[in-house]
Amino acid sequence: MAEAAVKAKEAAPDAQAELTDGFHLVIDALKLNGINTIYGVPGIPITDLGRMAQAAGMRVISFRHEQNAGNAAAIAGFLTKKPGVCLTVSAPGFLNGLTAPANATTNCFPMIMVSGSSEREVVDLQQGDYEEMDQLAVAKPLCKAAFRVLHAADIGIGVARAIRAAVSGRPGGVYLDLPAKLFAQVIDAAAGQKSLVKVIDAAPAQMPAPAAVKRALEVLKSAKRPLIILGKGAAYAQADDAIRTFVEKTGMPFLPMSMAKGLLPDTHPQCAGAARSTVLKDSDVVMLVGARLNWLLSHGKGKTWGEPGSKKFVQIDIDPKEMDSNVGIVAPLVGDIGSCLTALLEAMDSKWPAAPADWTGAINTKREENVSKMASRLMKNTAPMDFHGALGALRTVIKERPDAILVNEGANTLDLARGVIDMYKPRKRLDVGTWGVMGIGMGFAIAAAIETGKPVLAVEGDSAFGFSGMEVETICRYGLPVCIVVFNNDGIYRGTDVNAGGGSDPATTVFVKGSRYDKVIEAFGGIGVNVTTPDELKRAVDAAMDSGKPTLINAVIDPAAGSESGRIGNLNPQSVLRKK
Ligand code: ADP
Ligand code: MG
What we know:
Helix content: 40-55%
Shape: globular
Radius of gyration: 26 Å
CATH superfamily of the largest domain: Thiamin diphosphate (ThDP)-binding fold, Pyr/PP domains
Number of helices: 23
Bound molecules: adenosine-5'-diphosphate, magnesium ion
């Protein structure tokens, strides 16, 4: 509807005509597009939006901090391929939430952060409104896309654009700015309904070019020491059958990136997870499937990758700009992973050569060596626990309950759990992702429980837990089947640092000694357990998973057990001039 008509309608709404308003149109537009859950924090000007969404049958999950609601929306997007929606108040709430769409964009998760904002007329003249901020301008450089809707009649288009931007191509975080005045704008109900858009084929399949398929197969066929690296793009794509068929038909060893673990079981005979350094160094052809050659893969070069020039890379990615980002890609396959793998499978000869036996044999030897080296460490049943002992118990839990979702963050807690805990099914491991960001824990755990209905095990460093810990109240309020295990080693990396200045303040990386995180959840009616041995830990987690009741287990870890920055100490500059 033209602006003049909207104004006329607002001024003198026809007493007979049915009316609708911005609140209703936002809710109707989301529902029309199959979005039935909102993660948010209520407040001005979106309090009524949450209430009305709930009244309209949507699931509205209220958090204690916007960043956690945003993280929940982001991982909901990863798990479902539909944009997760996060709702926040203006300026400070918006900024609290903004980390989430920025992180979602970095990780290629589709989400939409919807924030109420203050009046444009006042904000743009900087006249000092309540929570004044030009939120659209702030969001733009950090999100995949950002939009603002000023007229109720444009809400349908605004929501449609946000959805399409979030899920099409490389997915990402989208910001949708809704000024307070918009919500109360009244328009004719029939016109309002007509203005809504049901997005058709929001993320269209993208077929690779036949010549690119042929080129990729030629390179793969020439390989003497091939390797497939599966990334979280492959997990996101939900092309699980095509991935398994391709991997098994080629017989090539595969290496899952963290959140791609379980696409094929970590116990699969072709899984090279336990021979990671060997396969990275010695492979000659590497096929990347929804994985980027970023810092997590040492940018495809350097010591990790063996002799310079010893590799050829084949890459499947939906984003053409990803190709050649770190090293030259000899066979780029641009398209969605399902379409690309299907095309490869169709173009492959029925008698594809088996992967060379000397190569697969060498990997198996290495893998068995590494697995047996670790085995005894995982069975250590001591008090206090070390990381391996505690993780050995949790590894058995996931083996016995492969449907459970594992959320994982921390430093040592993250790095060691990633290697120790085998995954058996796709999209069951959710963690800190591309940024290695702390604070995703409770947001991810809540959304995982809501979106999948499956039990969630959140394995948290004591420091990492602190970033979103207040959401245990949210977990208790909604009665979610989430079991949190806090690996409590009294601090960041370790609990043993002392103040280098000799003063009475504690060192910068230590926390209160002997803290009892289990008491935190008890304050909200959840179950708290304190454990000191792997056996106790296993029993407590099993009880929590059986009951489905919100549980927090304080797992006492030896304060001296961790190492600085876990596995990424090389990224942490340390002064050679520091006085010990
Ligand atoms: P990891 O950290 O597991 O290596 P990354 O996040 O680095 O994974 O890489 C994921 C890649 O997957 C991104 O480059 C992204 O463009 C790509 N991607 C995401 N979804 C799809 C899809 N459906 N089809 C193809 N590529 C995808
Ligand atoms: Mg710690």
